[in-house]
C-alpha cells in the first residue's frame, strides 16, 4: 500500500514498492511541492540518513562508484553508513587510510552544468554534530577544454572535514560541474545540498529531504541493478554466430545507453526442455525509448534448437549510465 505524506513543506511516498510508474509520478509531485516551498536541492541521494544504495555494500573501500551517484576519487577512501548515537541517525562516514585527502564527489550532468554558467550557487554539508559548512560563489561562463579543472568556489572545514568545493571538469560530453567533499582523517556527514543563489550559514534554506522514493527514481536514471530472476527471450543470430537475446523491462529509464556487468547468467531452458549453462563470450546492450533494455549475449556454440525459439534463463546484471 502506497501512502502519500505531504507535511512540513515536502512530500514523500511511504512503502513505494518497486512500481516504476508510481515512483516517476511521485518524483514529479515531490519536486512540485518542494519547489513551491523552498529552493530546490540539485544533488541526488543527498540525505545520508536513508541513502540509496543499490549496489548493496555497507562499506566501499575502492575508487569508483559505491553509494548511488557518489564516487570516490581516491583508492584509500573508506565510505560507509553507520549509526551515530549523538546525532541519533545514520550518517555517512568518510575515512582515509593514508595521509592524503579523501575525495568524495558527485558529478552534475552536462545539461545542468551548462545552466549553472553565469549564476551563483551554494554548496553545503552538515556534520553529525549539526555544524553546517557552506561555500558559495559565481560559476564562470567560460567553457573549458582539454583536461583542465577549474575551481569555482570552495570553503575550508574543520576536524576531519578538510574542505568542500565546486569545480568544472572538461569531458567528452562537454564540461561538468563536480561537487567535492575532501576529508582528512574521519568525518561523519548527515546531508549535502547544492542550491542556486548565494547563502551563508545563517541564510541557508532549511534542508528538506526529497524522500526515498524520489531519490531512488533519480538514482535509477544513472544505475540499476536487477534481481536474479527468470528473464524471457529467444535465440537469434547475426554474421558472427548465435545469440541469446533477452528483453528486460526496467523500473526507470536510464539517461543513456548503459554499460552492463553480468552478475549471473545460468539455468538456460529451451523449448526442448533441456537446461544449459551458456558460455558467454561478449554482449551488447540496446536502450529502447520506453526504458526497456535488449541484451544480446554472444554464445560460442550452436545450441541445437531453431533460431527464434523462445528461451528463459536466470539473469542478473548491473546497468550503469553514470557520468
Keywords:
single chain, 323 residues, 22 strands, 10% helix
Tell me the series of helices and strands, N- to C-terminal: EEHEEEEEEHEEEEEEHEEEEEEEE
- How helix-rich are the residues, as a percent range? under 10%
Task: Give the DSSP E fraction (strand runs of 2 or more residues).
Answer: over 45%
Net shape: elongated
Radius of gyration: 22 Å
Briefly note the structural class of the backbone: mainly beta
**Poorly predicted runs:** 1-19
Written description of the protein model:
The protein is mainly beta. Helix content is 10%, strand content 46%. A hairpin with a 6-residue loop joins β12 and β13. The radius of gyration is 22 Å and the shape is elongated. The N terminus is likely disordered.
In a few lines, what is going on in this structure?
Helix content is 10%, strand content 46%. The protein is mostly beta strands and 323 residues long. It is elongated and about 70 Å long.
Secondary structure elements and their pairing?
Blueprint: E1 3-7, E2 10-14, H1 20-35, E3 59-60, E4 64-65, E5 71-72, E6 77-84, E7 89-96, E8 102-107, H2 110-116, E9 120-127, E10 132-138, E11 149-156, E12 161-169, E13 176-183, E14 186-196, H3 212-219, E15 223-225, E16 229-238, E17 241-248, E18 259-270, E19 275-276, E20 280-287, E21 293-299, E22 310-320
Antiparallel strand pairs: 1-2, 3-6, 4-5, 5-8, 6-7, 7-14, 8-13, 9-10, 9-14, 11-12, 12-13, 15-22, 16-17, 16-22, 17-21, 18-19, 18-22, 20-21
Helix pairs in contact: 1-3
Amino acid at each position: 500500500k502506497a501512502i502519500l505524506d505531504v507535511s512540513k513543506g515536502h512530500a514523500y511516498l511511504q512503502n513505494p514498492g518497486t512500481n516504476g510508474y508510481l515512483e516517476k509520478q511521485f518524483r514529479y509531485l515531490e519536486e512540485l511541492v518542494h519547489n513551491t516551498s523552498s529552493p530546490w536541492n540539485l544533488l541526488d541521494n543527498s540525505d545520508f540518513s536513508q541513502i540509496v544504495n543499490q549496489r548493496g555494500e555497507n562499506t566501499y573501500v575502492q575508487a569508483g562508484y559505491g553509494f548511488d551517484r557518489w564516487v570516490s576519487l581516491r583508492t584509500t577512501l573508506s565510505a560507509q553508513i553507520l549509526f551515530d548515537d549523538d546525532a541519533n541517525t545514520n550518517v555517512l562516514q568518510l575515512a582515509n587510510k593514508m595521509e592524503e585527502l579523501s575525495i568524495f564527489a558527485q558529478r552534475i550532468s552536462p545539461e545542468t552544468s551548462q545552466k549553472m554558467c553565469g549564476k551563483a550557487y551554494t554548496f553545503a554539508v552538515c556534520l553529525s554534530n549539526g555544524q553546517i559548512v557552506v561555500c558559495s560563489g559565481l560559476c564562470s561562463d567560460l567553457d573549458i577544454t582539454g583536461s583542465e579543472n577549474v575551481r569555482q568556489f570552495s570553503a575550508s572545514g574543520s576536524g576531519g572535514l578538510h574542505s568542500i568545493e565546486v569545480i568544472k571538469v572538461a569531458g567528452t560530453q562537454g564540461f561538468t560541474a563536480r561537487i567535492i567533499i575532501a576529508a582528512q582523517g574521519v568525518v561523519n556527514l548527515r546531508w549535502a545540498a547544492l542550491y542556486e543563489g548565494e547563502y551563508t550559514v545563517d541564510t541557508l534554506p532549511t534542508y528538506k529531504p526529497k524522500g526515498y522514493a524520489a531519490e531512488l527514481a533519480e538514482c535509477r536514471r544513472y544505475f540499476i541493478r536487477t534481481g536474479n530472476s527468470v528473464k524471457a527471450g529467444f535465440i537469434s543470430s547475426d554474421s558472427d554466430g548465435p545469440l541469446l537475446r533477452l528483453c528486460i523491462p526496467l523500473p526507470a529509464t536510464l539517461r543513456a545507453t548503459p554499460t552492463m556487468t553480468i552478475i549471473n547468467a545460468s539455468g538456460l531452458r529451451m523449448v526442448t526442455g533441456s537446461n544449459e549453462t551458456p558460455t558467454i563470450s561478449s554482449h551488447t546492450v540496446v536502450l529502447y525509448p520506453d526504458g526497456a533494455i535488449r541484451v544480446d549475449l554472444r554464445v560460442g556454440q550452436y545450441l541445437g534448437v531453431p533460431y527464434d525459439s523462445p528461451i528463459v534463463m536466470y539473469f542478473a546484471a548491473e546497468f550503469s549510465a553514470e557520468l
